[in-house]
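[Discussion] Sanity-checking designs against the backbone

I'm trying to build intuition for which residues belong where. Below is a structure token string of 248 positions. I'd appreciate it if someone posts a full sequence so I can compare it with mine line by line.
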């Protein structure tokens, strides 16, 4: 695995400054996306907890969701909106891909974006009032990047015209992805010693998020012919929401 992989992943998936040499490659983007998720999740969760303690759970939730959007340049939210515009209406494959490539956001995208953000904030606010709230918020961000890394496994089809999809196709090996899956689920299960019920809930919510992302990927394969960069972002946002909602 490339030593510059983490920097390549951070260059595309975050606003963090990285050396120009790393920013020019995409081979490490998906293999190291879970590591980026650990960093982003820690930052967003930390701000959410501070907002909760200083103001209120709702303020903390808004701060955490907003911080995540800023740190990712809204890239995944944009992917969610474009994917909703492409998959929402009953249109053919070529037209759907054309709509997704356009820079504007249609009505389906607006609705999906607004509802997702509102639900993420609502779930985060509720979680911040529970003992296992901050681990669940952190897990939601990390699991989302694990779901995105899944699209880089061998055999995952890329939709016609997807530049990013073709660049990252097949960049994640099965053992590497399995390793990350074990690490993430292991970190969540590590709370079993202190609170077995909380650990079980976190692992279950992580699996629910991965399942939701998988269903979206299968829909994209059927309707679009494969994955695109927008679909990756949509999978991430979907997984984030389902993990948070399932942990309530």
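Best answer:
Here's mine. Compare freely.
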């Amino acid at each position: 695995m490339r030593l510059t992989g983490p920097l390549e992943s951070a260059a595309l998936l975050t606003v963090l400054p990285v050396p120009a040499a790393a920013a020019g490659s995409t081979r490490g983007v998906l293999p190291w996306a879970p590591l980026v998720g650990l960093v982003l999740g820690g930052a967003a969760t930390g701000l959410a907890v501070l907002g909760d303690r200083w103001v209120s759970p709702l303020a903390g939730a808004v701060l955490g969701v907003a911080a995540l959007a800023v740190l990712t340049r809204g890239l995944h939210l944009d992917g969610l909106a474009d994917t909703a515009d492409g998959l929402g209406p009953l249109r053919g494959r070529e037209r759907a891909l054309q709509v997704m490539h356009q820079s504007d956001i249609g009505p389906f995208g607006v609705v999906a974006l607004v509802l997702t953000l509102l639900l993420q904030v609502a779930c985060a606010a509720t979680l911040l009032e529970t003992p296992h709230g901050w681990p669940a918020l952190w897990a939601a961000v990390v699991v989302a990047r694990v779901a995105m890394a899944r699209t880089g496994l061998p055999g995952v089809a890329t939709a016609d015209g997807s530049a990013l999809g073709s660049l990252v196709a097949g960049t994640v090996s099965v053992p590497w992805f399995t390793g990350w899956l074990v690490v993430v689920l292991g970190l969540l299960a590590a709370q079993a010693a202190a609170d077995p019920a909380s650990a079980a809930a976190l692992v279950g919510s992580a699996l629910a998020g991965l399942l939701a992302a998988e269903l979206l990927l299968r829909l994209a394969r059927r309707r679009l012919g494969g994955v695109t960069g927008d679909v990756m972002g949509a999978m991430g946002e979907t997984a984030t929401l389902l993990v948070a909602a399932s942990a309530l």
